[in-house]
Structures are given as structure tokens and as C-alpha cells.
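User: For documentation purposes, I need each entry recorded in a consistent format: the amino acid sequence on its own, followed directly by the corresponding C-alpha cells. There are two entries in this batch. Please keep commentary to a minimum and don't merge the entries.

Assistant: Recorded as requested. Entry 1:
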Amino acid sequence: MKNMTAGSVFVLVLLLLFTNGCNRGKITDARDGQIYQTVKLGDQTWLAQNLNYESDNSWCYDDDPANCETYGRLYNWEAALTACPDGWHLPSDQEWATLIKYLDPEADSNAVGVESEIAGGMMKTRGTFESGTGLWLSPNVGATNSSGFSAVPGGARWPDGTYLVLHMHAIFWTSTEYDAETVWFRILDYGLKSLYRDHSNVTKPMGLSVRCVMD
């Protein structure tokens, strides 16, 4: 950039602000004072970080508070339903579908399995854990975070208290039940740029990540 004029630098700064700043914001959770980044995607505004509000039936991965700071807390489904700050809520399956369709107009909102071939990469943070440049295991396929959603691989907690898949998967609750035991969820994988919609093998007592959407 040493050959750029002052005027061209000013234009570049404006461009960066337009592309990376105008859809961003922040909120403060009045309950505990935590500050969260937000991102506007289409007509929806989402938290751009995993929720980290301490409540009953929520946990830090491996019971380590440092993991809560990095990845947010893991909530069982009942806790997730009421965990979001005032003015925000746990998104429904349809609200997730709206987000994914905004990112990828070719997405299949009714899929059980691959909902979008590309949205996962658009949502995952960049870099790899092994290189010290990110949180996802290598190769973190297709990760650009072009959406600004900033998905991090917070793993999950089984009902028996076992923690698993940190650095590998970001798994998010929806508020929509599939049946008495299971719920629709979304999952992103370190080895894929796709995004999955499913309800199997995840039961309500499990601990998963929460993203809130504005009312």
C-alpha cells in the first residue's frame, strides 16, 4: 500500500467499512453485562457469537470456564429455549432456513442432511487450530466467514456428561421439535463447506451451542 495516495487510501477505508461494518453491531446482555457482536443477514439480525449466559443446565466444554469465553456455553434444549437476552430468542427451524436461503438461494430447506452445499464455509471462522490461526481443525474446508456469522466449533455434551467434537463441529439448537425426544438442529463440520439440517442422534438433554436471533 506504500504507493497509494491519501485519496485512494480513504476510498479503501470506506469500502472496507461498507463491506464489513454496515451489517455489524453489538448488544449488551443486561443480565450479566456481557457484550455480543451482532450481524444483520437479510431481514434477520443474529448474534455473531455463541451465547455465554450462565443458567441451569448449561455447561462449559470440559467444565473449563476458559472454553465458555471462547466457544460460549452448551445448553440442553429446555435451557436453550429461555436462554437468550430480552428482545432475542432461540431461532426456529424456519428462521434457520431463512438464514441459509439468504446465504445460498439453492439451499434445500426441507432436507434431512445437506441443506446447503456452500453455506457452512460462508459461516465458519477462518484459520486452523493446528496452525494457531483459528479454532477449527485442519483443513477447515471452504471457510471464508463471508457472512460474518463467525461460527466456532464448540462441540457438544452428551447427557452422561461426556464432552466431544470440540474443534470439529458447531452444532446449534433450533426451537422446533421433531418429536418428543428430538429437535431440529444445524451442524457445521471442519471437513466440509456444506451445512446440515437434521434431527437424529441429538436428544433434548444434550448440550449444544446457542445463537440468538432478534425478535
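Entry 2:
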Amino acid sequence: MGIRADESLNRFMTISSQRKQRFADDKPWTTSAPGGHAWYIYPLYDWKTADIWTWFAKSGEPYNPLYDLMYQAGVPLRYMRICEPFGPEQRQGLWLYHVLEPERWAAMCQRVSGAHSGGVYAGHDNQFYGHRKIDKPDHLTWKSYALFLLDSMPETTAEHYRNKIAVYLRWYQKKGMEDIPDTQPADIGTKDIPSWRRVCKVLLNNDYWCRQLSFSPTKSSHYQRYRKRMEKHRQQWGILCNNN
């Protein structure tokens, strides 16, 4: 299969990691599947956007005509993507649906609650999705607001976030920071500046894998084992456990 290693650190590490088992020493673009019963082969891993479209131009092979519509709508090549529409990153492109495929967009608005609001607001820097600014109740600190948000979630979801946040807090404890600040300048921007306000942004944005706290998704095959291990660690650390 082909992967875009320059788009994802996980994909890059798939190719560059020295810990991966390879099919052969001269085939670094191969990795062993979990259990060792098969091999993943990535002969194309370093192509950039220009390389892909150069190949289509030279080969004359067919491609999805949606890309032509995106080009006509003024979308830069590096931002052209066909993907599921409602992910944390993908929903910022919802506005394109009513431009490119109005009939499909009408069906989406009928079937998915909030699709129209997402198309209006998700691509803008406003308080609706908390991209640039978020608010809290005046009588709460950002830390107490974060704990309130966790307590208001379904327990399974809350535990998922508590595990991630506990690792985040523990990392800063090891760096000599007993607790992260309530707020810091520029703490809800693209750079990971630790604060409870940033944690609140993660929760309000429904950033399930906590990418804004510098996490990567946990592999589904390891997730249950990860949860059990984290429950023990939180008790040992005394962070976001039932006793505090």
C-alpha cells in the first residue's frame, strides 16, 4: 500500500523506527503485522502532493472527479482530501459539501443532527467550537471547570480522557511542575503550552485522542490493556483517581 509519511508522525515512524521487524534488511519499507502472520508493504511512502499529481498526469490513469471540483472551488492542492466529514479536523471542510455536492449536502443535513451548524461555524475562528477562544462559568477556575466537564460525561468517555490527562499531568510533574497553571499566554493556540484552560479546550472540542495535548491515537488492539494499565498508574500517581 502507499502511505504519506510526511502527513503523520505515526506513518513516518512506521518506516523510520529501528524497532520494527523488517521482511529483509534491504526492504526497510516492510513491517511485520501483529502476531507475525503477515507483512505490511509500503513501497510508496515518501511521495508528496506534487509527486502524486505528476504521476496521474503522466500515466493518464483515472482519479476521483471530486478533485476537479475542489480545484474549481479554489482549494489548494495540499488541502484537497476526500475523507469522512465529521472528524475533529475534517469538519472544518464541511462548507465544501454544499459547494461541490449540494444534493449530498442536503441529505447529510437531513440525516445528521448539527451538520448545518457545523458547515456554518466549524471553519471559522469563533467561540462556537472554541478554536481561538473559550469561556467558562465565572465562579469556576479552569481546573474545576475541567473536572466538572469530566464528571458530566458518560463514564466510559470520562475515563478515557482522565487517562490521557493523567499522563499529561504526570509528565509535567516529572519536569518539576507540581500542577499545571490554570492559564498561560497563548495556551489554546497550536503550540502545546500546558494549562487547565488547554485541557478544557480539548474536552470542549471533543478532541478524543487529545492531539492538542501532544498524544497520538492508541491502537485499537491495545486499547483495553492500555486502559487497565492506566487505571493502576493513576492510583499510584494519585492523579484524577477516585480518591482525589
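Summary note for entry 2:
Residues 64-121 form one domain.
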